[in-house]
Known about the structure:
Chain B: It is found in: Cell membrane. Chain B: Its main location: membrane. Chain B: It comes from Agromyces aureus. The structure holds 2 protein chains of 2 kinds. By secondary structure, chain A is mostly helical. Chain A has a domain at about 60-270: MetI-like (MetI-like fold, Orthogonal Bundle). Chain A contains 12 helices and no strands. In chain A, helix 5 crosses helix 6 (about 140-165). The longest helix of chain A is centred in the first third of the chain and has 37 residues, at about 65-105. Chain B has one domain: MetI-like (MetI-like fold), CATH 1.10.3720. Chain B has helices at about 1-5, 10-40, 45-60, 65-75, 85-110, 110-120, 125-160, 165-175, 180-215. The N and C termini of chain B lie far apart (about 45 Å). The interface between A and B is large, with 68 and 72 residues.
Amino acid sequence: MTGASVLFDAPGPKARRRSLIFSIIAGVLVVAALGWMFLTLNAPKESGGITLPGMFDASRWDIYADPEIWSFIIFQGVWGTLRAAIVAAVLAIIIGVLFSLLRSAETAWIRIPTAVVIEFFRGMPVLLMMLFILLVGSTGQYWAVVWALAVYNGALIGEALRAGLVSLPRGQREAGLSLGMRPLQSKMLVEFPQAFRQMLPIIVAQLVVLLKDTSLGYIVGYQELLRVTLNNLSSFYGNRYLFSLFVITWLLYLAMNLSLSWFARWLARRGDRRLRPAKGGPLPEDPSQAILVAQANAAARQSEDNSSR
Amino acid sequence: MDVVIENLPRYLEGFTVTVLLLVVSGLAALVLGTIVAAMRISPVGTLRGVATVYTEIIRNTPLTLVLFFCALILPYLGSRLPYTVAATVALAVYTSPFVAEALRSGINGVPVGQAEAARSLGFGFGQSVTLVIFPQAFRMTIPPLINVFIALTKNTSVAGGFFVVELFTVGKELANANGDAVIAVLLGVATFYLLITVPLGLLAAQLERKWVVQR
């Protein structure tokens, strides 16, 4: 229960009773649905039941207990996904740092072309970029996936970092300069570490997007989790395991993504709250939103500074 | 460059399918997302729980997996839906939690005192939402919603990987057919995507800048 929803909770016995009634209805519906599944799905076709070729069929449960299948899924599929995701994440952060520094440069000749390049990468589907690198760069599927993800997420992480730089109080830069640093030194040693730390939750949230997007490798033919389980395994064991394998794949993706996004949320909760849009609201995952929130906060802080002087 | 001009009709065909996917699944996602957002702020605990679980699960599932389910698993289980319809459903379902989160962030942006004022005037849940909260939340919701639709535009390309002939598929086929002009062909495809995403992005930034300052 977050934010404004607290207020819609009319306290008292009426609300509690209504909530209880809804809970009972929902429980009955869930039990009925599960019962319907088990009663009809395993019924033979002649009696009008649907035979779901998968997890509800007892003869196909063996796949969940087969260590060979699991080792194949984990050492080929999960490893293929993580291998691409980790390398792409490191590259994306490096590219993001470069983009944010270039885009917040004083010289217009550096700033404006960088902005155009970032807009180009942000506005184009990652899948198209993968195809582009695959056909033009002749790098092989692995590097096509890695570079496309790195460049796309690098552009977005760069925007988030720029928001962090924008949101810093101007005094930080002045302090660096007054210590005798050059502008670039002040940016790298004073401003940037603060911006990075502040934007860490948004960067991690962006890495969840990256991890999800590795599954696009399926379409360009890279051997990642989706392809290994649902293409290779099901063509080896036959389609009768397709649904079971789908469920396994889904659960593995959920395990990877949920742990990373809970980590992002934990970082955001414990970190600086200046960039959160509203109490209890979701993280501004889109960096363009983060920039505007940061700008508004910076403007508000500046007007506070001016009025207190 | 010549390749792009020669094949302009095919590009436009693919572009039409892309726009169609965007509009239909966007509208469906808007409806679904509004329902989920309403559930998430409702006073009933069960509805909130269901909506939260739905949001968490769909948001952490890759779109490729959702489309795989709709395009390959459903026919295997006996569905007879055409691929385009299946892809539209998949895109709508995948986008709906993002729409819900955008709506919720707008609703959460309304100061709590407004809801308290509505309650103290004797408004019920429905009245305080429609008369007090939503009109204020709306302006804060539009820019993030536009961002959701930008993401949806780019996501329609994934449907191209699952038997839907849209802009990405057209680009892939043209690139395979014209091995000597791959760069021009793919830059042509990118231009069509940018034609949708960049103006929408500028609009979102413009509206947000205007409204963030006013807040």
